[in-house]
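Session log. Operator J.P. requested a structure for one protein chain; no other inputs attached. Running the standard single-chain path with token output.
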Amino acid sequence: MGVDVVFDGEAALKKIAKRRPDLILLDIMMPGLDGIEVCKRLKSEEKTQTIPVIFITAKTSKEGKIAGLSAGATDYITKPIDLDETIARIKTQLQIQEIHRQNLDLQARLNDARQSAAIGAITQGIAHNLNNLLGVVVGYLDLIENCSDDPKMVKRSSGLMNKAVKRIVNIVQQLSLFATKNKVQLTLMPVGQLLNNSISRFSAENNIISIIKLTNPDPEININANAEAFENILGLFLMNAWESYPQGYTKERKIEVRSKIIQRHGGKHLQIKVSDHGEGIDPKIADHIFEPFITSKTSVGRGMGLTIARHSIRSLGGDITIEKNPRGGTIVIFNHPL
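Structure written below.
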């Protein structure tokens, strides 16, 4: 272990800039810059702010010690110096610094492990979903080939195959959106138009007669949004609400979309609530509902929608939350900044 010695504050800063020390013994009383000012400058710089500084001072007053510690020092030694005490304090600070380095290294390794695990889980989920969907496509192609003389079977098989292909395309689009760090292009649009277009698109794409009750905000309200992303996200919520009712449900599937302007995080947001009276969220997945490939649905190609939706909205400064509907079912709350 080498030791460098300088005799004033300016020289100390120049030496530290050239060679970063593990620890600094700093006299408060020095010509030119005093120790307090040197310490403040060191703590203001990212490269030097974590270096432990032990003040050497002739001041024994409480105020003097507080001034040194307030400047960022980790410890202080009063004159006359006791060599054994000084060495002990230096060793203590170096040990603390080493523990800090080990903790940072451990944290970096844990982050790498978490990232690798997350990538592995997402990759496995993608492969599983795509393999299943491709299996569906191949299966219906075989049916079409074997039943080419049956128009009804061909039409039914091609329709189901088309749905599987759309889900494959949807997964690829979701992954592209999730991977990009760039915000989508925004356009000023009327809120009512966005909501109505989203509901109409959902009904048309899924061949569902719209039974959705829509409560519009002030028609004069406009929002900076990406129409495609907005319609995809609201369509996802509507599909989840539709599918929340059990299979074979013959009564009216009530879905309500309410919207209003709220004040949130220092700015105005459009808040949309999509409510249903279905079976609600499975308690087993309630705490992990926004994680990739967490789903209670049995059909393939599912599980990324809410993850992507939250990622997209948070990149714009909004958020998505889910809660129980007091009247039974689920409420999805979608906050989009104006």
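Operator note: Residues 122-179 form one domain.
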